[in-house]
């Protein structure tokens, strides 16, 4: 299997620069005419898989919306990930895990080990116990040729309290995270497999010029981020950007054709990323 960065670059080139979330929020389930329970969750995911499989570059299930239903919800997530991965659609598990030592190792094995029922192509991680604490996930991802997306500069207002704090050399904490990810991507062909998360609603992004990895940009659409914001924040790294859209697409459901039309419209708005 090729490294995640290479596989992602190929998917972006062939299917357009878009990550679509599978976010089974209770309100969305109700809006789709589904029950807010495991049966509704399963139908929601089946429709999303039918709409997005083979159509978008990467799909991002939001793990929390499955966990809320307990073991039955996790079983739905397992089936969703398995179907997408087996058909060749890249899956990014939005789990935002971050811990130390053996606990981080367990999180890594859950999402990145080939023999795990939840194994995905990549996982989001939180580095705010120190970037070095992510080593179990980063090392296992390199071993299994999967990917990791590190939270760097998120769009929530509370994030600035930590992410914009300055370290001794004057860099912001967010910049340190980007720079540490860049070290992990050194020497990679095409695109490294350690990405960062940078919110599309920010006024300013960290310097991404040396990252040589994918840049996931959530916050596009319903949260207020626009293609112009993506262009401004990405600078000369446009071809590494993966805009993440969830509600803007999902509110078109439950019709599979309407969901696909929403994807097509969104992809058209980001055509400049592949120019």
Automatic annotation (TrEMBL):
Keywords in alphabetical order: Decarboxylase, Lyase, Pyrimidine biosynthesis
Pathway stated in the Swiss-Prot or TrEMBL entry: Pyrimidine metabolism; UMP biosynthesis via de novo pathway; UMP from orotate: step 2/2
Known catalytic reactions: orotidine 5'-phosphate + H(+) = UMP + CO2
Gene3D superfamilies: Aldolase class I
Active site, renumbered: 96 (proton donor)
Keyword Lyase: yes
Pfam families: OMPdecase
SMART domains: OMPdecase (SM00934)
Enzyme Commission number(s) of this protein: 4.1.1.23
Enzyme class: lyase
Coiled-coil residue windows: none
GO-annotated molecular function: orotidine-5'-phosphate decarboxylase activity
Alphabetized HAMAP family for the sequence: OMPdecase_type2 (MF_01215)
PANTHER family from the UniProt entry: OROTIDINE 5'-PHOSPHATE DECARBOXYLASE
Name of the protein: Orotidine 5'-phosphate decarboxylase
Annotated organism of origin: Rhodococcus chondri
Native organism taxonomy: Bacteria, Bacillati, Actinomycetota, Actinomycetes, Mycobacteriales
């Amino acid at each position: 299997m090729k490294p995640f960065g290479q596989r992602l670059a190929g998917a972006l080139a062939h299917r357009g620069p878009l990550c679509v979330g599978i976010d089974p929020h209770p309100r969305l389930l109700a809006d789709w005419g589904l029950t807010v329970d495991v049966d509704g969750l399963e139908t929601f995911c089946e429709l999303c898989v039918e709409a997005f499989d083979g159509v978008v570059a990467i799909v991002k299930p939001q793990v929390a919306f499955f966990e809320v239903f307990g073991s039955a919800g996790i079983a739905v997530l397992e089936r969703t990930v398995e179907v997408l991965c087996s058909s060749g659609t890249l899956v990014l598990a939005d789990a935002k895990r971050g811990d130390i030592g053996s606990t981080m190792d367990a999180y890594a094995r859950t999402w990145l080990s080939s023999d795990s029922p939840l194994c995905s192509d990549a996982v989001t991680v939180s580095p705010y116990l120190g970037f070095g604490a992510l080593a179990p996930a980063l090392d296992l991802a390199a071993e299994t040729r999967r990917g990791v997306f590190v939270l760097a500069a998120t769009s929530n207002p509370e994030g600035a309290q930590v992410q914009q704090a300055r370290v001794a050399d004057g860099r912001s904490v967010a910049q340190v995270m980007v720079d540490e990810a860049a070290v992990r991507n050194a020497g990679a062909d095409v695109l490294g497999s350690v990405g960062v998360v940078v919110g599309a609603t920010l006024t300013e992004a960290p310097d991404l010029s040396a990252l040589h990895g994918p840049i996931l940009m959530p916050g596009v659409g319903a949260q207020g981020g626009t293609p112009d914001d993506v262009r401004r924040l990405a600078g000369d790294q446009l071809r590494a950007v993966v805009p993440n859209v969830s509600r803007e697409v999902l509110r078109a459901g439950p019709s599979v054709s309407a969901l696909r039309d929403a994807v097509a419209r969104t992809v058209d708005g980001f055509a400049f990323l592949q120019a």
